């Protein structure tokens, strides 16, 4: 049935009104108007697309998809509807459907001169990236750059894809070019910060770009959290604590962001040996959002540091039920090895190696297992590989020092133990092995001082953990997660 002239005229006025509202950001008011428009004129594609836009702004994703799909059914050549449909599918992590919609938009286009046209290529590349089709994602990005080399954000996306392909040098070049084009692109700055921080371990460059980011957005708690993460990488934990505390103050009204900061803050406090405060930070994060891996793993690490390996194992297993990672599997294997369950540790290490064969944690725990078995050559090779991958991970030096003492290489053991203590001065085990190496080298006074310091640290940290456990018991919470 054709709409009446009155309906057509009313729909036209409402359609114009909805655009004005959407441009003002008043999507809540625009949605019912757009719904009335499609009710009056149900066979006009761009009006369904307008409804989809309004619903998308209101984060009513499924309804937005339905509206865009109606628009493309009425007009299969409507590029904007296909493009926006791809974006909504991406936001719902429906990447195969996003790829199909973005492909359709790209096929229909004869040029990509507009921002909207370029977005279809970006969405296609992102969908391919999420589907693990890295070469195709890169090709899609490069196709866009051949038309429009100054497209906003695309150089950072290219850098991200190259990072996933482990082409780190090329990724850096792409991102630096992106920074030249868009020096105030906050998302791009975060991409290059993560490249330097996570892939290149260049914390000086990472901090430099983070300072630029903070100068642009000084009241964004996420930027201060990122600065704290960088400072942790530089092992400047006290400055990191200040950055995290600033982030917590700024994120006070954002529960999800606050959770991430509490968990990072707790992880950092472990390295300062402040176990009670670390556990309290994890608890604050868990009180907001439960079921996150990081605080569960953190509790396991703390218990392991005071020799409670059985309890630590329970926490690691609880975290693994949420999300198996190489780090968690390595931690579980280390707890098993410490309990003398070497065959089980080997089996868990095989699981970890299947995810990442050359992971530092896998080699470190293989060294521990080989040491327990008396396979000293294999242990030395494993520890050396672990320290090549991460030369600043103190527990590896602790274990290597113990092995060297077993082999009678006292001077080397003392040197390695001192390195462990310098890297992690709040690690009781580092002080303990330093004392053993000093005593073996005949340095009695030095051994006595190190022994006292290690014992004092362990006693203090154990008391903090026991206080936390008593508080859990008082709240009716178990000391460890219940088994499945």
Task: Show the helix and strand layout.
Blueprint: H1 5-23, H2 27-40, H3 45-57, H4 61-74, H5 79-91, H6 95-108, H7 115-130, H8 134-147, H9 154-164, H10 168-181, H11 186-199, H12 203-216, H13 221-233, H14 237-250, H15 255-271, H16 275-288, H17 293-305, H18 309-322, H19 326-338, H20 342-355, H21 360-372, H22 376-389, H23 394-406, H24 410-423, H25 428-440, H26 444-474
Would you kindly provide a written description of the structure presented here, covering whatever features stand out?
The structure is a single chain. The chain is an all-alpha fold and 484 residues long. It has helices at residues 5-23, 27-40, 45-57, 61-74, 79-91, 95-108, 115-130, 134-147, 154-164, 168-181, 186-199, 203-216, 221-233, 237-250, 255-271, 275-288, 293-305, 309-322, 326-338, 342-355, 360-372, 376-389, 394-406, 410-423, 428-440, 444-474. α19 packs antiparallel against α20 (342-355), α21 (360-372) runs antiparallel to α22 (376-389) and α21 (360-372) runs parallel beside α23 (394-406). The longest helix has 31 residues, at 444-474.
Question: What are the salient characteristics of this protein?
Answer:
single chain; about 475 residues; mainly alpha; elongated
Short description:
The protein has helices at 5-23, 27-40, 45-57, 61-74, 79-91, 95-108, 115-130, 134-147, 154-164, 168-181, 186-199, 203-216, 221-233, 237-250, 255-271, 275-288, 293-305, 309-322, 326-338, 342-355, 360-372, 376-389, 394-406, 410-423, 428-440, 444-474.
